[in-house]
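FORM 12-B: Structure-to-Sequence Request
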């Protein structure tokens, strides 16, 4: 399946189950609402607990979409066993953190360098290193998640670096990956920031519709990359 067909399939898939779509909308709304409360009233940091729970459940469910898609399913997975989804969400966070570690270090060095010395030549070098490491880490995160889900969510499989690189099939994988990168790093943040400036009713509608659509779209698309563009032994 080529990239265009994968994108069309992902769009159709995103709208194929209204109840689950609504459930994801509730999760996104809950995340945003909890975040707003903590920002406006730091004393209510207790809302951090439900925020973490909602975030991990959401991440775990999206990982399940990736897994079921890889193994040929064309339907939304049922929402069951919250504990398993919670653990899946933790795995996703660990994968992202480990592969983003060098990018985080580079960003921290840039931040300190700007504070202490202002913008100079070393800052530019660090910025270039940061951009390169971020791009590479994002590619590896996608490959790691696919390999992890292909191996029935075994976290160890996410760090089989040589295996992941070998299975990627760089040309096709990169062309497909750009779609996921565009959605997760550009479209979703822009929609989120823009919605915060709107009327509360419009903000709520976006939380219940647009953001879940983008999340499911990217998860389904990543699963299709795993199904068709990831070299399976």
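FORM 12-B RESPONSE
SEQUENCE OUT:
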């Amino acid at each position: 399946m080529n990239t265009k067909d994968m994108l069309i399939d992902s769009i159709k898939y995103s709208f194929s189950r209204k109840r689950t779509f609504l459930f994801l909308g509730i999760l996104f709304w809950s995340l945003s609402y909890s975040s707003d409360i903590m920002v406006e009233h730091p004393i209510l940091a207790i809302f951090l607990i439900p925020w973490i729970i909602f975030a991990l459940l959401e991440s775990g469910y999206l990982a399940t979409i990736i897994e079921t898609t890889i193994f040929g399913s064309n339907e939304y997975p049922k929402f069951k066993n919250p504990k398993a989804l919670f653990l899946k969400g933790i795995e996703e966070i660990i994968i992202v953190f480990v592969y983003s570690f060098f990018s985080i270090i580079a960003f921290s060095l840039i931040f300190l360098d700007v504070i202490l010395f202002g913008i100079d030549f070393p800052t530019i070098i660090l910025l270039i290193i940061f951009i390169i490491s971020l791009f590479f880490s994002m590619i590896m995160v996608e490959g790691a998640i696919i390999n992890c889900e292909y191996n029935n969510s075994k976290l160890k499989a996410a760090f089989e670096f040589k295996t992941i690189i070998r299975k990627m099939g760089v040309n096709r994988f990169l062309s497909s990956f750009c779609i996921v990168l565009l959605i997760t790093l550009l479209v979703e943040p822009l929609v989120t920031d823009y919605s915060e400036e709107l009327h509360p009713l419009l903000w709520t509608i976006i939380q219940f519709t647009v953001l879940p659509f983008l999340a499911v779209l990217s998860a389904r698309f990543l699963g299709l990359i795993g199904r068709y563009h990831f070299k399976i032994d």
